[in-house]
Amino acid sequence: MFEQSFLAGLRSVSDGELPMRCDMCYTNCVLPRRPRGVTLDLKRSGFRKQQNLFSLFEKKKVITTKLIHKQENVVAVDRTHALCVAHCAVEDETAREDGRFEANHAQRQSKARAPGREKARS
Q1: What is the CATH code for 2-115?
Q2: What CA–CA distance (Å, rounded) separates 78 from 63?
């Protein structure tokens, strides 16, 4: 369940929002993406701490973290990683079945074409 929520949360983070503190990423991106009625409790899971969850995904090379001002931050997300690609395909198929795909796809496309993004990366 943590992996699903984590990958869904990463999908919602744009490259412009990085670097992002790991605790903020967990609170604002991972927890809101959990299924309804499900409580994610790190202390009762095998991870025990947020650091262990982020370390797992860093070892799998899905994310890159870096210590900035004594705070662990997510600085990069590998969106071409097999886990991310597989999760996106499953999520898109589920959305397509629910009729949400077209709206989500259009929203992602408009974010990608937002004016000024090319200037920010130059």
Answers
A1: 1.10.10
A2: 6
Per-residue 3-state assignment (H helix, E strand, C coil) for 53-88: HHHHHHHCCCEEEEEECCEEEEEEECCCCHHHHHHH
From the list 18, 20, 28, 3, the residue with the least C-alpha distance to 81 is 3
**What is the Cα–Cα distance from 79 to 62, expressed in whole angstroms?**
8
Q: Is 23 in a helix, a strand, or coil?
A: helix
CA-angle at 12, arms to 10 and 38, nearest 5°: 75
**pLDDT tens across 49-92, in order?**
888 889 888 999 989 999 999 999 999 988 887 777 776 666 65
3-class DSSP state for residue 13?
coil
d(CA 53, CA 27): 13
Secondary structure class of 21 (helix, strand, coil) = strand
